[in-house]
Amino acid sequence: MRNSADGQATLNSLRSKGYGRYASRFAFRTIALGLLSLCLSAPAFAAAPRWPAASAESSGIDPIALDSLYEDLSKDPHGDLKGIVVLRHGHLVSERYFNGDGPDTLHDIRSATKSMTATLMGLAIDRGYIRSIDDSIADYLPGMPRDGKEKIRLRDLLTMRSGLDADDDDPATPGNESNLDQSPDWIKAAYAVPVKRPPGEQYLYCSINAFLTGAIVENATKMPLDAFARRNLFHPLGIDRFEWRHVPVDRTTGQGNLQISARDAAAFGELYLQKGKYHGRRIVSQAWVEQSMTGQVPISAADPYADFYSNMWYTKAEPVGDGSILVHFASGNGGNKIYIVPSLDMVVAITSSAYNHGYGQRRSQDILLRLLSITRP
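and the corresponding structure tokens:
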């Protein structure tokens, strides 16, 4: 936690550099972080179960095959698989932790965060802070150069079709995530990225789109992204402990670096499985969920793990037996996944620290496919 002298110095610096509107937000953020730090340092108590427990067998999952899966995973040589949580029919059917993690361990889910940031956009629309995903991003980003960026719609950010010269797989592009990481002011860095192609035409995965989505939610709601999330998404889902990276100047990384537990990830998946409700309570509109689960942009030519992309969610028809099962999922570097399987009324959350290793993605997909193959309709 910042001490008071450091905090005052930072406030003075923000004001002197012309960031007066951020100064009050910084003061609020500093106080909030102090309170959060005190809460997190308090003794931990076991939370009440979020879901009633059910056996694998009663839930239509082969228990012997499930044990075999876990036995195989316990022998994984990499040592970076962390957790698996399986929900079915609203029950906690199975959870297993590896390599030192447990039910309450906070884990960086990397870009699976993007699906949460998109959900916060949906909540901001539901609550009237934002009119429509067809609005220009210029309506919510004051000071942004009108050099073609005003033609980018919120929808284009949410489907990775902004047209910005940004590609997370190409470090030479101005909007590459590494360039943001090195910037002393992420908004200024984002504003400087030129438009390379017409917005709305081509899918090209880049984290700057999710960062701008989060910044727009912050500007529209006049709240830090993590504070808006705590009030409108995390608390209703029972997510009371989390960490979310902050970057200069006073922004939350909407594109990633959210730390939650595997159970928290499963709760988020359950929200989408239940079309925007959690334990019967409406949190986000059904229309937003259905739009997110409806594949708007075909991406199989660019991504071997997905067929479609919409509102920062992926969709793929996974091969199982002689047929296929439609799966929606949030995905993060290292094999972090939140899988939603509507036809089986099932959620699978996987946490993994295989960051920047391709086997992490393959391992998580293999876990999903084995679970699908041992689950009765």
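(Above: one complete record from the training split.) The first strand starts at residue 81 and ends at 88.
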